[in-house]
Amino acid sequence: MSRIIVVSNRTPGKGPAAGGLAVALRKTLAEHEGFWFGWSGKLVDTPSPTARFEDIDGLKIAQIDLTREDHHAYYAGFSNSILWPSFHLRLDLATIESHWYEGYRRVNSQFAHALLPLLKADDVIWVHDYHLIPLATELRNLGVRNRIGFYLHIPFPTLDTLYAIPNHQELMRDLSRYDLVGMQANRDVTAFTEFAEHQSPSTLAGSPLETIDFGRTEVSAIPIGSDPDAFAKLAVSSAATKMTKRMDRFLGEQELILGVDRLDYSKGLPQRVEAYEKLLANNARFRRLVHMLQVAPPSRDTIKEYQETSDTLDAMCGRVMGRFAEPDWAPLTYVKRAYGQASLAGLYRLARVGLVTPLRDGMNLVAHEYVGSQNGEDPGVLVLSRFAGAAEIFEDALLVNPFDTDETAEALRMALDMPLDERRQRWQSLMAAARKHSVDNWSQSFLDRLSPPDGTESTSRRDILYLASVA
Asked: For position 68, what pLDDT does the model report?
């Protein structure tokens, strides 16, 4: 069997993973021979010419260091000040500095040169996320002919937004150098297809840009998931039960509305708190009977836009407290730190409402984790943004437009008033979808597509562009 080489911006650290990509790929790589390659998290004066290996919690990890200047241009600059906001349709938050692109490509080249001597001829290379879009091009330029796949964990931008990204033509050409490009949702494949069919408009000089050939690249929606049965067990573990009992003592007869997110402007946290405020304003009967807990550990807090989101959320929470709090009742709790998976699973299980309302998201694994943690005899209700990739598979959630805080407030009311039979019926459908799209099925589906049987012919270009979701 071929080795699997996982490549991502960061390699996993020691101790239990907090969630998302790290949790998903730890399980996948643990079941295959291979290693995980990426940045060590260290900043040095001289970039690493070669990778160093380390065993971390049973995983074989290969790491390189980056210089502070390269890391800033590649990570904080091009990746998170241009690509992240643009892919989330927030061009108003994009900051464009031309030299960042040079650093972005330079780091991808460094990754390729350090990875090259570690590869064997039949290795299958699986590259993850927007930080490393050019990596296949850099590897191909060094003579690598291995099968290389790319998975985009964030949404793919609409056509007009894509055109606004500096060097978007080169980035799309980079994607054409992969054998397989996996995306979270059909909407992302549709956006990609629109570019592939129409390509870029003419340049300022009036000359059409060179057409990119996607004829050798399979593009498909392969939605990622979690491990719902593992979360079901975790939710009744001793650590989870400890958290549940603590919250039970605090809540008393109150129903819990729970949000768990990184502190990121794409998560719609101010809009979420405003929707909760409207719930209390429009339905006085819920006061003293509900409590909202928002867990939002800081992320990329050195970037101005994230600091502004934090300040806005602080003000929103303060406003709700000032408007509705009583000496013996607080309407909400806002926590700016991360919790372990077991504690989160306990909170998920206790929550009557899981409030997952990003303005735009690739998938959102919190939705999967919430569903997996529920008590099937008395499950909670998932209120989910229709702009999360998860909305394509969780049809029995209460789907909302997170920009419409009145609609979200009404969904909260419906969730709190929903009878037990309907809650059970909806949860059973959601749990079936979570199991169908588990992390095991996701990784197996991707690797099956990336490693076709010998002699399999390439898919035609038309078939490539219209491959359906595995849903």
From this structure: 96
Which regions of 51-206 does DSSP assign to beta strands (E)? 52-56, 59-67, 124-128, 147-151, 180-183
Q: Do 30 and 17 meet the contact criterion of CB atoms below 8 Å apart?
A: no
Indicate the helix (H) or strand (E) that contains 38: strand 34-44
What ranges do the domains of the chain cover?
4-225+440-465, 228-436
Q: Which residue has the tokens 């300040």?
A: 311
Amino acid at residue number 331:
P
Percentages (nearest 5) of helix, strand, coil residues in the chain: 45, 20, 35
Give long-range contacts, CB 8 A cutoff, 24+ apart: 276-280: 276/320, 276/331, 276/332, 276/355, 276/409, 276/412, 277/316, 277/319, 277/320, 277/323, 277/324, 278/405, 278/406, 278/409, 279/409, 279/412, 279/413, 280/320, 280/323, 280/324, 280/331
- Catalytic residue, chosen from 153, 291, 368, 437, is 153
Residue 361 designated active-site: yes
Sorted by sequence, the CB contacts under 8 Å of residue 430 that are 6+ apart come out as 371, 382, 394, 396, 397
Known active-site residue 153: yes
Give me the mean pLDDT over the 34-57 stretch.
Answer: 92
Between the two ends of the chain, the Cα-to-Cα distance in Å is: 27
Cα separation, 456 vs 151, in Å, equals 22
Which of 30-34, 256-260, 263-267: highest mean pLDDT? 256-260
Question: Do the domains at 4-225+440-465 and 228-436 have one common CATH topology?
Answer: yes
CATH superfamily of 228-436: Glycogen Phosphorylase B; (3.40.50.2000)
The whole-angstrom separation of Cα 250 and Cα 288 is 12
Which fold is adopted by the domain 4-225+440-465? Rossmann fold (3.40.50)
Q: What is the pLDDT of residues 396-408, one digit of tens each?
A: 999 999 999 999 9
pLDDT in tens, 180-210: 999 999 999 999 999 998 875 545 444 455 7
* Token couple for 98: 């031309």
Which member of 179, 188, 361, 396 is catalytic?
Answer: 361
What are 312's strand-pairing partners? none
Spell out the long-range contacts of 457-462 with Cβ–Cβ below 8 A and sequence spacing 24 or more.
458/215, 458/216, 459/218, 460/215, 461/214, 461/215
Give percent above pLDDT 90 in the chain. 81
> Can you give the pLDDT at residue 1?
66
Alpha-carbon distance of 4 to 2, in angstroms, equals 6
